[in-house]
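Re: duplicated header lines in exported structure tokens

Our pipeline writes sequence and tokens for each protein into one text file. With two proteins the header for the second block appears twice in some exports. Here is an export where it did not happen, for reference. First protein block:
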Amino acid sequence: KGLLALSLPAAAVLGYLCWPDAKPSADAPAPARSVAQTPAFKTAPPPQESEIALAIEQKSIVAEFTGNGRERFKVVLMNKGTDSLKVSVPIGQIFESDEASVVVIRPGTIEVAPGKTRELSLRTAALRASNRLADAQYHLAYLSMPKIEPLLVRIQQDPDLTIAAVQTAILALTDNLPLSSVAKFTPASALLPSRFDTDAFRADTQDIVTALSLLRDIGVRESRVALTIDPQLRIESMIDPTSRPLAMRYYRITSELEWEFWRSELLAGEPATRHYALYGIARFYPDVALEMLPRWAREPRTNPVYRLSAVQALADTQRPEALPILLALQNELGLGTALGKAAKGAADYLDYQLAQNAAARSAVAFRTSRDVEALASAH
């Protein structure tokens, strides 16, 4: 009865919807697909992980190694399998060529797809100062060096260590090189000349002190390290502003004891390096130096080496007040003398440095002013 009450158009629509062959309108939404009907997307399996020695032994990869015998090393890997492979090269892995051996000091990992070839760059260090330093082919070495293992553990704890510091520490353990073999500064006396040409392994003073600190950290006794024999390192590292904080920690020189250190070096230090203390006093105690050094330069009974050092050290104060003092010394001592020429050279150097410093300050002030103006205009 209800159906008969429908109007003709409504009945026709209802009949169409109920008809077995009826098709939905193109504008009608498609019926929802059940979960069972949704196609599954296959996810790639995670890559297999393997250290390089095991991957080579299992013939999962083919590898080529090239290095320069010191810090640069390249690994070329080809994945022979059907699955992706993540290959790691751990710290401490040793590689050898016919004339050199190196150890990995910064580990590396790389993922290689099936049938593909990829390159991995590593940081290494020479295990011997006698290494041939030239690009060459290397092979994996299935050996270890127990004497450097504690150092490698310590290296992993500080990723900011420089390559030069790590290299110096390693050679101190393997070859026990003397200071004259690794220092960039000119030795006052070569107590222990090196058996090799070690110019490629020379390091900045701060790297040498860092290397000694690493060796102390792992319990190596200083009496067994040749680098510590030459007393020049201590005063060189204290003079150098970049290594001074490290040196004060390593030699246990507190701020309260620093002046006593310079005084002791000047009065009772090694004869070959006592005059170095004048430069340290000039750099770190300029007020004292401006009073003290002119008297040393003018005193004829003072050793000529100390008089010359006093003149040159005045420029290291980096103080404008030192410039007229040097010009006065130049006139008093005469340009025909070594001291007079040294005073002129020191005055010229100081004048140049002061001009450079003033220009740098002006540039900083200009940039700051410009940034302030830009910020003000933006608001």
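Second protein block, exported in the same file:
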Amino acid sequence: MVESSPSLETPLATASESSDDELASGEWEPWLAERFVAYLLHDATGARRPTDDVERALDRLSGQPGTLARLASLAFLLDPESHIDAWLVDEIPAFLRRLRVRSETVTDLRRGAARGGVDWARTLAIRSATRDPTWIAARSRRRTLETPEMIVVRYALELVWRTTTSVLRVEGVAREGWSRTLHELSALASAAIRHSALRDLPGRRPEPSERVIARAHHDSTVRHSARLLDAYDTLLPTPDGEHLRDALARFALVPLDADLRFQVFALIAIIECIDGIVAPARRVDRLVAADRDEVARWDGDGFTLLLRYDQAAAPGVHAELMRHYFGTSHPLRPDLRLELRRGSHTRELIADAKRSTSRSYLADAHHKMRGYLADRPDAFEGSLPKAVVLCPVASVGPPRPDDDVVFIGIRGHTDGTLRAAIAAWWSAR
């Protein structure tokens, strides 16, 4: 039996994650799943984003091109309402066992002896047209499986096999979770295609008339196959409109790396906090823009606030030193960087998302943030905190007002801790 995918409601945990990570994921993954799709599909004022822009954003976040198409493929294959697993495991084998072979009349044109009953009217017409008395047109009955319903079933199996193969080839993932499900679906579809009743049928796309026949067929398996073809056509090659919204709502987080998902969680959590702090300033979202600099921008009375994601900061001490000793340099790159401009004065706040429950790793994160602050000290002058580390564990103590670096635990985005830290930085003069 094909197992239902555990990724339909929440993204998958990797095999290397500890039980603490899985527990922590239960705190932030559902929160992110609710908000991520809306952020991708709409800008801050509620306008819909073009599909091409959404696709570019997903490609950047997953690190692979064609992410939107793979999401649509997953939506087609793993949608519980499609019941592809039951169709392959139970319905198709039973359908093939009860299959009836249909007979059809065919006309055979040949010279010499006839096979079957002679069609004298057609024979005389051919002889008259060709002036060749050796032509004979004969009619006979033959058994065939190339019927509208069989063409639809064969093509539906072809689509399942082709789509699973395409996703698994690109992802290159182990047989765990949804990838294991896809491997099983692919094997079942391939075995059915090799069945003696199907292997010699053309794997062509059914004609519209054949699909109409299949949709109204007396056999439930044929009707199910027709519904699968309709579902495929709404999602691929490019999902759009409500189908895009539905596919992203349930599958948008599946291909993202877990660390990237946590970064996006931190990104959206910070955006929501800032919205509440600087209201009624208007926000412009830029994450989906192909040529973006900042991912979000707020313009208000006497200020501009920019949020940058995964973008290098201005060169500082580290870049100058590397250039001096090694002839090359790269600016430091915090996960998230807030830049507040008031007149000629600019202040920054940096944030890193560390998806780890390891205390030693989080201690190293403190050292890293200290390095960011020391690299460009003027950028953070006059405000506290200067740096925020978001982590998927519950911190023992709350942020202290005099700490340059503060740690905010898993519930900080809902209990007001994150907003309070950003508000303290925002209000400094």
